[in-house]
Amino acid sequence: MEKIGFIGCGHLAKALINGLSNFKKYKIHGHDRNEANQNWLQANGHQALSLEDAIINSDVVIICVKPKDVISLCDDMKQHISLNKKVVSVAAGIKYRQIKDCLDDAKIFRAMPNIGSKDNLGITSIFSREESSDIVELFKHLGEAFTVEDEDKIDLHTSLIGSGPAFFLEIINEFEKRLDELLPDGETKRDITVTFLSSLIASIKNGENLEDIIDSIKSKGGTTEAGLNHLYSRDFTKVFSEAVDAAVNRAKELSMD
Ligand SMILES: NC(=O)c1ccc[n+]([C@@H]2O[C@H](COP(=O)([O-])OP(=O)(O)OC[C@H]3O[C@@H](n4cnc5c(N)ncnc54)[C@H](OP(=O)(O)O)[C@@H]3O)[C@@H](O)[C@H]2O)c1
Fold first, then answer.
1. Is 190 inside any structural domain?
2. What is the chain's Cα-based Rg?
3. Considering 90, 149, 153, 232, which has the largest number of Cβ atoms within 10 A of its Cβ?
4. For ligand 1, mutation pick of 7, 69, 121 (most atoms within 8 Å of CB)
5. What string of H, E and C letters represents the secondary structure of 173-194?
6. For residue 157, is it within any domain?
7. CA-to-CA distance for 114 and 122, rounded, in angstroms?
8. Pocket of ligand 1 from Cβ distances under 6 Å
9. Of 118, 149, 180, at which residue does a domain stop?
């Protein structure tokens, strides 16, 4: 059984723990300074340990704290790290070198997963100067996982893979609010969004061209065209694209802080 220790058990760690809990080959425990997260671990059948115990009892340690907390955490971890301990950081913008300088005995990996890992439908990119097959396999249990040769790609993946789901969820959230307002009582808005999103996903999985799908829904003078024309007249596609750029730029800034 492989022992995985999460240091920091907030939003992302919970998603990763939920996904890995589906596999008996992993024994999971965690360490967090926040009592609510310690309680969450215990309520979900995982031990909440001290920092030292969480590290020494792990084959793989996963650092899941906010970027601002990583370096001071690594200073605290240093004394407990044995030679060749595998340490994965999921923190946006914190470079491989910064962690390696602090934890020089450890094998360091940077991973950029996303929240889909909770349902084993995540995507994770991994960078390291070490042999990474074990770590890739670990994250493959949470969905897709692949290595990148160039560390800068991790910053790009932070914005595209890490943040991307929230952009789509914001649109779906707004759509559900309008369903709530406009549909008669008794209709279940979640069933409606799930049904139509499932059909879109099926088309995407079939490899259909996205513009062709949009064209097939849109008829001249119809409702779809009216809605889409409004989006285009408000430069929605440009605004959406700029949101991606803003996330990409922020990922670059974080890596330079
Ligand atoms: N959320 C995502 O979808 C996502 C996607 C990709 C990557 N990431 C990366 O994942 C990391 C974690 O993000 P998150 O949203 O999960 O953060 P979060 O919800 O704030 O969870 C972090 C937890 O770690 C605790 N912590 C911080 N420093 C600690 C220390 N020295 N010892 C013990 N516990 C400590 C925090 O306690 P306090 O609350 O007291 O600070 C908090 O409970 C970030 O670096 C982020 O860049 C997140």
1. yes
2. 21
3. 90
4. 69
5. HHHHHHHHHHCCCCCCHHHHHH
6. no
7. 6
8. 8, 10-13, 31-34, 37, 64-67, 69, 73, 90-92, 112-115, 162
9. 149
73 Cα to the center of ligand 1, angstroms? 11
Q: Calculate how far, in angstroms, residue 10's C-alpha sits from the geometric centre of ligand 1.
A: 5
Per residue in 193-240, pLDDT (tens digit) is: 898 899 999 999 999 999 999 999 999 999 999 999 999 999 999 999
Supply the CATH number for residue 202's domain: 1.10.3730.10
Whole-number Å distance between alpha carbons of 89 and 108: 8
Q: Along the 257 residues of the chain, how does pLDDT read in single tens digits? A: 999 999 999 999 999 999 999 999 999 999 999 999 999 999 999 999 999 999 999 999 999 999 999 999 999 999 999 999 999 999 998 999 999 999 999 999 999 999 899 999 999 999 999 999 999 999 999 999 999 999 999 988 888 888 889 999 999 999 999 988 888 765 678 888 898 899 999 999 999 999 999 999 999 999 999 999 999 999 999 999 999 999 989 888 887 76
* Residue 221: domain span: 164-256
